[in-house]
Amino acid sequence: MSAAADPANRAWFPGLVIHTVIAHATYNGVRVLISYRTLELGGSGVVLGLMTAVYSLVPLLTALFVGRLVDRGYATAVLWVGTALSILPVALAATAPNLGVLLIATMSLGFGQLLTTVASQALIPQSFPASKLTAKFGHLTLGVSIGQTIGLPLAGMVADATSGDTAITNALWFMTALSALTLIAAVIVMLRGRTPHVSRAEAAEGAIAPLALLSVRGMKPAIFASMATLAAVDLMTAYLPLIGQQNGLTVTTVTWLLAARTFASVISRLFIGFLTRKWRNLSLLWTASAAAGLCVVLIPVLSQPWTLAILLTIAGFCFGLTQPLTMTWVSTLSDPANRAAVLSIRLAGNRLSQVAIPSAASALTVIAGSGIVFTISGALLLLAGGVTWRNQHEKW
Question: What is the rounded distance in angstroms from the CA atom of residue 250 to the CA atom of residue 39?
Answer without folding.
Answer: 26
